[in-house]
Automatic annotation (TrEMBL):
UniProt KW Signal keyword: yes
Protein species of origin: Chryseobacterium cheonjiense
Leader sequence residues: 1-22
Pfam families linked: DUF4292
Protein's UniProt name: DUF4292 domain-containing protein
InterPro entries with a match to the protein in the record: DUF4292 (IPR025634)
UniProt keywords, alphabetically: Signal
Amino acid sequence: MKNWIIVLLLLFAVTSCKTRNAAKKSRNALKTDSTFVLENDQNPKDVNEPIRNKLPFFEHVIPPVQFEQIKINSKVNVESGSFIPTLDATIYIEKDKKVWMNLQAFIITVARGIATPEGIKGQDKTSKTYIDSDFDYLNNLLNVNFIDYKSLEKILLGRTFVKINDSQFTLTQNSQGFKMASNTNQKIETEERTREYKIVLNYDTNYDLLNVNLKDVLSPDELDVSYSNWEEINGIRLPRNVKIIIKGSKSSQILLENTKFDFSRMDTPYSVPSSYKKIEIK
């Protein structure tokens, strides 16, 4: 698989380390789709006593972003063991309908992808290959179970997309903001094995998502996704910087610098030439 396809998949499935979220077991009145973000050794200090009434906190972090469409221009840097130049990305999100992405290197389009509620498609123009996958296939491939279209939108916009609940997480507050930490290991079941994770989510004092820590308790597998330089644009809080670190048998890092946000509609062409070859993701 070419590097451009890898980048598309990493950006579409931004939290794609070998993890599966135990979201299906987290259903109650206070459940939410929440974002994983983690920066090593950046948990808030001097944590106060646990907050017992978590409802006000959930009322701030649960509500979805209200928008019709958002266009994001980004600079993308990927470190995955092989050279990938800095990429210019255009990400266009049409709420509840599609996420379209175009990647350029040296002003030349090298890859394009589109995600809809039905699945993900991507093409590498340098190798004339393409992929066509539903979310189930992508989740199985990446050993996760939480990626669907709605969670993808929230990931890109820095919103909470992992389901967390009142009984299995402890909420504390200090001068740096809020910390939501699992108080029991979250069991993640796949066909091959059951794994257990510790999950920590950190928020600023104004409830902007800062980071999430997802760590396998029995292996080195760990996921870091951090958001910073939040700004309010057209009444919407959006992050300027996103950092994704995937640790495990193979480690990779993605840095997105969101340079411009636009709320106007745009064309999102996507078609695969008949000469392109479909590839299986391995």
